[in-house]
Structure formats: C-alpha cells, structure tokens
Specification:
The protein is mostly beta strands and 94 residues long. Strands 1, 2, 3 and 4 form a 4-stranded antiparallel beta sheet that branches. 9% of the residues are buried. The protein has one domain.
Length: 94
Amino acid sequence: MRVTLSRPAYSYLIALNPNGTIQFCAPVGGIVPNSPRPELDFPENLADYFGLTDGVGLQAFVVVASDRSLPAYESWKTQVPGGLAWSPVDREGF
C-alpha cells in the first residue's frame, strides 16, 4: 500500500488487526527517517505482501504523521495518553 501525504512528514503506519493486536508496519525497524517524506510504502519490497491471517473482523490501518521528527516507535507508543488500544470487533460481513 502507498500512503501519499498532503505534504512531506515524519510518519508511521500501524495495522490494527482483527484479533485485537496492534502491528507496527512502517518504517521498517521502527526508526523514522532523518527527513520528512511525502509517501510511505508498505511493504517496502514489492515482492512482499501483508497477509490477512489474523481472523475474521475489521482490519484497519492508522497513519501517524507529524511536521516534527518522531521518536522511535517503541518510545512513541509509551507516550500516547491512555495507551494505544484496539479491540477485536466480533462481527462478520463488513
């Protein structure tokens, strides 16, 4: 998938999986590049793919983007007020 931002930014791509897990997707390694970018690609290698293997339910993606440099993802998620939370949606047929 390609995320095109309205202007260059520091960003993360996070998957919210049907089984309730939160999966960091991009940038690879959780380290934000030194300069803002206009796009975010996932997966970076076109031969790779994102498998939908986490059960039935809602699959969502979240983009976090900022004009300011972001810390490494592991550090950033500890700073989210109330924590980063996602629960499975127990319904079929979206």
